[in-house]
Amino acid sequence: MGLLDFMTQDIAIDLGTANTLIIHNDKVVVDQPSIVAIDRKSEKIIAVGKRAQQMHGKSHEGIKTIRPLKDGVIADFGASEQMIRELVRTIPNLRNKFFSPSLRMVICIPSGITQVEERAVKDSAEQIGAKEVYLIHEPMAAAIGIGIDVLEPKGNMIIDIGGGTTEIAVLALGGIVCDKSIKVAGDVFTSDIVYYMRTQHNLYVGERTAEKIKIHVGSATEELDNPPEDYPVQGRDLMTGKPKQITVSSGEIAKALNKSIIQVEDAVMQALAMTPPELAADIYNTGIYLAGGGSMLRGLDNRISKKTELPVYVAEDPLRAVVRGTGIALKNVESFSFLMK
Ligand SMILES: Nc1ncnc2c1ncn2[C@@H]1O[C@H](COP(=O)(O)OP(=O)(O)O)[C@@H](O)[C@H]1O
Ligand SMILES: [Mg+2]
User: Fold this and answer.
1) 33-59 pLDDT tens trace
2) How far is the CA of 263 from the centre of ligand 2 (A)?
3) What whole-number distance in Å separates Cα of residue 135 and Cα of residue 69?
4) Against a cut of 0.85, is the pTM above it?
C-alpha cells in the first residue's frame, strides 16, 4: 500500500429514493431512509435519515420533511446534497484529526435521472470532498450485487423494485442493452393501501402505517401458500372522526395492490418484448432476478414467474443488493469501463 492509497478513502453510495446506503472498508456503514427534516424558517437541516423519518407525517408548520429523491428523480438538489453530506459525516473513522483524506466515490443512481441530474450528483459529491467520482446505473449495480458476471457475453434480466421506481433492465457485456423504468414501486404500493383503507374501511391511515401494513401483510397474490396472520391497524374513522382499529388480511392487501402489480407485470412483458433474441434465449435459460425492497412483497416472485413463464429469483438481502454491487464496482474502478467518470 503506497502513501497515496493511505490518503485515499473509498466509499460506495446507493442513493436510493427510499434508502441511502454507504459501504466503506467492505462494511455497510450507513443504512438510512432518504429523508431530511428542514426548519422552514431558517431552511436549515434539523435531521436526516431515521431521525427525520420519525418526524415524517408528524411534523408541524415549522418543520417540513422531504424525500429529496422521491419518484426516482432528484426533486430537491440542495436537500439531497445536504443529506449525503450529513450521512457521509456519520461514517466512523473516515476522517481523523491529522488529515483529511481525499475521497473516491462510486455512486449508484436511478437510471431514469437526466444528464443534468447526473452532473448535479457529481457536483454534490465534489462539494463534500470527493476527488474522484464515478456513477453507476442502478440495474448494473444490482446485477453485480446479486453476483452476476456482468461482463460476460450473456443476457441477464434484473428487476429492481425500489421506493420510487421499478427498473427493469437487460444487461450483457458490461452494458445495459434495454431498460424500462416505471414510477410504480414501493411508494405506490403504499399509497394503494392508504386508498384502499380509506375507500373500503372508511379508515384514514398515514403513509407510515400503510407501509407497516405492506410489510406485515402485503401480498401480490390472494393465493399465498403461507399467508401471514391478519394485522391490526389503527387510524381515524372518516365517518365519526374517532380513532379506531380494524384488522386486515393479506388477501385484502393483494386486492388493493392488484392494479399496480399488473403495471409491473406489463412493464416486464414490454421489456421482454424489446429484448434481442439471442439475449432472450439466455434469459429463458437463466430466468429473472429481483432486487430492491419492493421485491420482498409476498408472492411477487411467483406472480412474475407465472406471467412470464420463467423462473424468478429474489436476491439475497434485496435491500442491500445495489449497495453491495456498488461496493464491488468501487474495487474494480479500473476494470469496469461502464462506470461513468
Ligand atoms: N418486507 C417488505 N415487503 C414489501 N415491501 C418492502 C419490504 N421491505 C421494504 N419494502 C419497500 O421497499 C422500498 C424500498 O426499497 P429500496 O430498494 O430501499 O428502494 P430505493 O432503492 O428506491 O431506495 C420501500 O417502498 C419499502 O416500503
Ligand atoms: Mg435502490
Assistant:
1) 999 999 988 988 999 999 999 887 777
2) 19
3) 16
4) yes
CA distances to 6, 29, 53, 191 from 207, in Å? 45, 27, 11, 7
In angstroms, rounded to a whole number, what is the distance separating the alpha carbons of residues 130 and 124? Answer: 9
Give the CATH number, domain containing residue 227: 3.90.640.10
Which ligand 1 atom sits closest to the C-alpha of 162?
A: 19
Same domain assignment for residues 160 and 278: yes
Q: 14 and 100: one domain?
A: yes
* Same domain (yes/no): 8, 127: yes
Residues 279 and 149 in one domain: yes
Of all residues in the chain, the percent with pLDDT exceeding 70 is: 96
**290: Cβ below 6 Å to ligand 1?**
no
Q: Are residues 247 and 278 in the same domain?
A: no
Whether pLDDT at 88 is above 80: yes
Contact at 8 Å (CB) between 189 and 214?
yes
**Measured in angstroms, how far is the CA atom of residue 165 from the centroid of ligand 1?**
10
Give the pLDDT of residue 69: 87
Domain, as residue range, for 175: 145-184+259-321
